[in-house]
Design brief:
The protein is of the alpha+beta class and 230 residues long. The chain has five helices and nine strands. The protein has an eight-stranded antiparallel β-barrel. The radius of gyration is 29 Å and the shape is elongated.
Length: 230
């Protein structure tokens, strides 16, 4: 701080006496602080800042972090999760088919947390968006939507070494007529490939991508990443 004051005096060609008078502190107090024989008091610092029109105190940068009910995670600590993911789940309308779309996870500066949004869905009006919870206690990742009280959540494990994320989705599916039916299904989020675009939409048995997509969904339960009990 003393060095900063000396630099300002030199830059402005201001004498120490002039600064002391402007800051309404004694020249003795200023001299001792600049020579290092006495520390600056808070009162002196405030007066010097006012006289010089600058801040002399170190500004600690704000650390962006989520609110406590989402896990209180820091932005820098969850950067590894940001990105686009090929998202796979069973089709709710056609037995045996796979539904594929894109999910983007990003830092939402307005909400100060990770958020997600679904993209490139066949049924675009039903695309979901929400926030991401990562509590330290369980270590799971939650993609959580609350639309006027109507909730939907994906509970995911931490990523594999190659970035794959597996878990379960609890949501509502269109039932008979206009009724909505609770449904749970395995869900996989795979890092979006750097080259080319994966096939999206409804993937049917016999499609080139089907076997590989189905392998990811099958292993979620078979390998113990999640349990479906009846």
């Amino acid at each position: 701080m003393a060095e900063r004051v000396r630099e300002e005096l030199a830059r402005r060609r201001m004498s120490r006496q002039t600064l002391a008078d402007s800051a309404k502190i004694s020249i003795s107090t200023l001299e001792k602080a600049l020579n290092g024989s006495r520390p600056f008091t808070i009162a002196s610092v405030v007066r010097l800042e006012t006289a010089l029109g600058i801040s002399l105190r170190v500004q600690v940068p704000k650390v962006s972090s989520s609110r406590p009910d989402l896990g209180g995670y820091a932005k820098a600590g969850v950067a590894w999760l940001e990105g686009d993911y090929l998202t796979l789940r069973p089709s709710f309308e056609l037995a045996g088919a796979i539904y594929a779309y894109r999910t983007q996870i990003y830092w939402d500066g307005d909400q100060e947390c990770l958020a997600f949004r679904e993209m490139d869905r066949l049924d675009a009006p039903f695309s979901q968006k929400g926030v991401v919870s990562i509590p330290n206690r369980s270590g799971q990742i939650y993609l959580y939507t609350n639309d006027q009280g109507q909730m939907r959540v994906a509970i995911l494990n931490r990523p594999h070494i190659r970035g794959e994320i597996y878990g379960l989705l609890a949501t509502l599916a269109v039932g008979a007529g206009s009724n909505l039916t609770p449904v749970a299904a395995p869900i996989a989020l795979l890092p979006w490939p750097g080259v080319g675009n994966p096939k999206l939409g409804r993937i049917l048995e016999g499609d080139i991508e089907y076997a590989d997509y189905q392998r990811h969904l099958t292993m979620i339960v078979d390998a113990g990443y999640a349990k479906l009990l009846t």
